[in-house]
Amino acid sequence: MAISTPPYGNYALNRVIDFDRRLMLAVDAWREPPSSPLTLAMRALTRLGDTDVVIAHGLALVLTANRGSRSATFAAIAVALTTTTCLVQLLKRVIRRPRPSRDLAGLRLLTREPDAFAFPSGHSAAAAALTTVALVCGHVAAPAEIALACGIAVSRVYLGAHYFADVVAGLILGCSLAAAAVLLLPGWGS
After folding, report:
1. How far, in Å, CA of 49 to CA of 153, rounded?
2. Which CATH class is domain 11-184?
3. Beta-bridge partner residues of 117
4. Ranges of each domain in the chain
C-alpha cells in the first residue's frame, strides 16, 4: 500500500509521521480477525480506558489507598483526570490528526472511534494519570497499574484507533499532569 507524503512542512515531523504510518500498516498486517481471542482481549483492555471505567477505577484506588492518604489520593486523581481530559480534548481539536482508519486506506478498524481525532490518546493519558498517582502514593496496586496502562496503550494501536505516537504522547501527558497534580496539591502525604 502506498503512503502519501504527510502534509506538514517540517522534515523531521514528516519523517516521524511517515514512520508512524508504516508502523500502523505493519501492525494491521498481523492483526487477527475481529472474533479472535487476541482481538477480544484487546477490546476488553481498551474498554478499561473508557471514561466511565476510568472514573470507577479511580474511585477503587481511593477506597483501597492507605487510610491516611485517601483524601489526598482522591484530590490527586480528580485533578489529574480532569486536567488530562481537558488537555487531551483541546490538543485533539487543535492538532486535528485523523485516526488511522480515516488516514490510511484499507486499514481495518477493530473498535469504535469515540471522535475523529487521534492525537493524543485519551485512553492512554487517563491510564497513565491513574498509574502515576498510584505510584506516587505508594499504592499496593501500582505494579498492576503499570501493566494495565501499557496494555491499554497497546490495545489502542492494535485495534487501529491510534498511531504509536498518539499513545506515547498520551502516556507522557497523563504521567506529567498527574505528577504535577500530586506535587502542587497542598497536604499531599498528610
Report:
1. 9
2. mainly alpha
3. 98
4. 11-184
